[in-house]
Every structure is written in structure tokens, then in C-alpha cells.
Amino acid sequence: MAEAEAGSRRVGSSEGGGGKEKSLKDMGNEYFKEGNFLKAAALYTQAIKQDPNNSALYSNRAAAFLQLVKLNKALADAETTIQLSPEWEKGYFRKGCIFEGMERYDDALAAFQTALQFNPKSAEVSRKIKRISQLVKDKKRAQEVENLRSNVNMANNLDQLKIEMSKKCGSEEGWEEIFSFLVETMETAVKSWHETSKLDPRVYFLLDKEKTDTDKYAPAVNIDKAFESPHTHSNCFSFLRQYAEDSFSRAACLVTPKSIISYPQVWKGQGPRKWRHGQRDGFFVQFETAFLRKLWFIPSSNEQGQTLCRDPEVLDISAHEVLPRLYKERQSNS
């Protein structure tokens, strides 16, 4: 708050005419305390005209302008305060508060640290440094989270799978298309989760462009009822396996949120050595081909008020499969 410093011209008189006159600065301070920052700034301006080298007046007017969100004017007054009294911590403190209002946290932190050099015992400045340091940290992490949410690249997490598919398939044509199908499906799921924190449980199929009757077979099948009971699970699996065969699909990718699975709860009874995610939210991605099966869990968390998917975690599909094998197993060309 504005400090009551002596030195401004005094005006008016107290009741009875015998009391001490109030200065323009004192009157400005009273209006500041009452929350009338516009009137306070006007009185400080009048006082500055009478005493243009009084750093306390510029400091007080900077505080009033800050409350009025006239940040550029406030910053100019803080700079003048520093010019007039370069070893007084208050000018740097004002500057720090204004930069904080501008959300220029690095600049605010530098200003507060300078203020602390001139008054190392100031608890007020120390609190500001602690607060701004946390804001800088939070802002940096918020930017990192936003970058991670905006730049989804699942291929970076599937390098080992790409090598494995290459070895299994050898010179066989088409495995690159299957890999791209998986990457696209996973990235679409992650982006949807980031936007809504939910997914529709589906199985996506990579259909054969030449053989599949696309009027009869769609590239995605909703399976929202599949995990309600062992009975619905079995019926769904039987349907999907027949669908995969009749549609001449080359690969399938199941995507389902963990939260909707009543059966089979593949994380139950596995122990922390096999299931390292506890009760964390997220979703499963199960990849199916005739020559390769893979399963991932993609955990999610909330950071800086944003939903963020973590890197996919490979699971042992023999222990955690969400659905049994969809394609009849065949040997690769390796």
C-alpha cells in the first residue's frame, strides 16, 4: 500500500482550525486505503507537480495505477522511483508487482530479487519471490504440457515394434501400411482423450482395398457393451473374430477406456510387479494381426488443469489381453 511519507505541500486545515494540515500525499493515501484508486492517483499527481523529485510519490502513484490496471503508466512510475532512489527497495518491489500483473514472471522475479538485495529482511519481498518462483515453474510446466498435448507422435514410442514387424515380415509388402494404421489409430485416440477425457470403445479394422465389401463392412465397430459381463464379452469376441475374417481385414486395433471394463478387469490380481499403474485412469490399445499381437496401456493424469496422456506402456498380452486372439495365427516370413 502507499506509504505516508513527509515532504508534500500541505493543504486545508483540521476541524477547529488548530490541527495539523494534511498533505496531498496523505489525502491520496486515505483515498487509497478506501479503495478509491482513481482519486488517490489524481492527488499523487498534484503532489508530484509540487515535489517532482519525491520518489515516494511516484511509488504511491505506481501502486494506484497498478490497482487501476493501468500497467504501462504504473511501470513508468516504478522506473522513475528507481531513478530517483536507486537504493530504495520499494521501486523494485513496485516494478516486480507490475510485471506480475503483466504475467512477465521472469522479469518480476528479477525485480523482486533486486529489492531483496537492498532489504534482505523484507518478509513481503521474500513472500513475493516464493510466489513468483512457483508461478514461473507452473507456467513452464503448463507450456510443456500444452506442447505434449499438441504434438502427439506415437511413432516415436513404437520404434521397437517397427523393427520387430520388419524382421517378422521381411520383404512382404504391406507391413508399413499396417504400422501406419496402428500409429494413426493410437494418435487419434490420444487426441480425443486430450479433448474430452473419454473414448468410445471400438475396434478399428484395416480393410483390404481390393477384397472387402465396403458396403457391408465398416472400418470401425462399436463395442460399448462388450465388457459388461463374461457373456457379453464372449459374444462380442465371437462376432469380432468372424467380422475380421469375413471383411478380409489385415489388422485390427481395439481402443477402450479402462473405466468401462467390468469384465475382464485385466489389472486385477496381477500385483504391482505385473501391473504398475494402480488405479490410474487411461485406456487400452490392443493390436491384432495374424503374425503379431501387442497390448498397451496409456495412462493419463491431470496437470495444470489439462488432461495429459503419458507414454504407452507395453503389457504382457498373455496376462492382460482385453480380447482373445482375433486372427488365426500364422508364421511370419522371417
From TrEMBL:
Is Repeat tagged as a keyword?
yes
Q: Which InterPro entries match?
A: TPR-like_helical_dom_sf, TPR_rpt
**Region Disordered, annotated ranges:** 1-25
Say which domain of life the source belongs to. Eukaryota
Q: Which GO terms describe its molecular function?
A: Hsp90 protein binding; transferase activity
Q: Which SMART domains match?
A: TPR
A Pfam match is TPR_11
Annotated keywords = Repeat, TPR repeat, Transferase
| Name of the protein in question | N-terminal acetyltransferase A, auxiliary subunit
| Taxon lineage | Eukaryota, Viridiplantae, Streptophyta, Embryophyta, Tracheophyta
